[in-house]
Specification:
Elements (H helix, E strand, L loop, with lengths): L12 H5 L18 E5 L3 H9 L4 E4 L3 H4 L11 H12 L6 E5 L9 H13 L5 E3 L7 H9 L4 E6 L5 H4 L9 H17 L3 E5 L3 H10 L3 E5 L7 E4 L1 H4 L17 H18 L11
Parallel strand pairs: 1-2, 1-8, 2-3, 3-4, 4-5, 5-6, 6-7, 7-8
Helix pairs in contact: 5-6, 6-8, 8-9
Bound molecules: 3-methyl-2-oxobutanoic acid (KIV).
Length: 283
């Protein structure tokens, strides 16, 4: 292979963590050498598209409970379902770093539960890291997994598995007590060995303060531009549901509208006898 045809470099927990560089490595003003681009995917087709487009992290999020399964929250998702989707996405990923979410109540009851669930996601799913929601209360698990060789991505702020505790999917960290708690959670995750932390649904200043305070790379969603990277749910980024457009989302395509148009054109062609034509027919 010619030098110019080199495949993109494989992204790992180590290479991503190293992007939180020092000034002598040509960093941005916030301390990251190059911002990290992450996106969710749940199957081989979209994982491959994201991987080939050069996205750094493919996250098999438990958001699949909402965008793939149609539930109102992520809470019903099981470890079996996460393993299944992670295994499918893994077949499409070559260069990106593949992270799988630990679903609700697969790790909250005990560290042993968490170790077993993480083991399945890595061993059966092919995940290269796992993501857990929470802070101080999951720090012991984060430490244990890290020592066992499983990189852990944390997740603080508006953590969707706590939707009932929050009274809905609501911005967190507006009041000082919440702000301090979320900052302490991020510090606890980083101290326990998390290489990355998703910061979701918090004011910009809090995300910036966390990013400055921890050695882990921070990946924001609805947390402003000062994080070390950004993540979006692929259905939001691609506009797969034309009716859903929260403020923190930027749509880079309108695939929902395009797909609806294509389905309607196909149905009209079939009904009118225009499909299949001669070129789609074997003699
Ligand atoms: O489940 C998910 O997709 C997530 C991202 C939104 C960070 O946790």
């Amino acid at each position: 292979m010619a030098d110019t045809d080199k495949a993109p470099r494989k992204q790992t927990a180590v290479s991503l963590r190293a992007r939180k560089g020092s000034a002598d490595k040509g960093t941005t003003d916030k301390g990251t050498t190059e911002k990290i681009a992450a996106v969710t995917a749940y199957d081989v087709a979209f994982a491959r598209l994201a991987d080939r487009a050069g996205v750094d992290i493919v996250l098999v999020g438990d958001s699949l409970g909402m965008v793939v399964q149609g539930h109102g929250s992520t809470l019903p998702v099981t470890v079996d379902e996460m393993v299944y989707h992670t295994r499918n996405a893994a077949r499409g990923v070559a260069s990106a770093h593949l992270v799988a979410d630990m679903p609700f109540m697969s790790y909250q009851a005990s560290v042993e539960d968490g170790v077993r669930a993480a083991g399945r996601l890595v061993k059966e799913g092919g995940a290269e890291a796992v993501k857990v929601e929470g802070g101080v209360e999951v720090a012991e698990l984060v430490g244990r997994l890290t020592r066992l060789g499983v990189p852990v991505m944390g997740h603080v702020g508006m953590t969707p598995q706590s939707v009932h505790q929050f009274g809905g999917f609501k911005l967190q960290g507006r009041v000082e007590e919440q702000r301090q708690r979320i900052l302490a959670d991020a510090r606890a995750l980083a101290d326990a060995g998390a290489y990355a932390i998703v910061i979701e649904g918090v004011p910009r200043a809090l995300a910036a303060a966390i990013t400055a305070a921890v050695p882990a790379v921070t990946i924001g969603i609805g947390a402003g531009p000062d994080c070390d990277g950004q993540v979006l749910v692929m259905h939001d980024l691609l506009g797969l549901d034309p009716a859903w457009k929260p403020r923190f989302v930027r749509r880079y395509a309108e695939l929902g509208q395009a797909a609806a148009k294509a389905f309607a054109a196909y149905a009209a062609d079939v009904r009118a006898g225009r499909f299949p034509g001669d070129e789609e027919t074997f003699e």
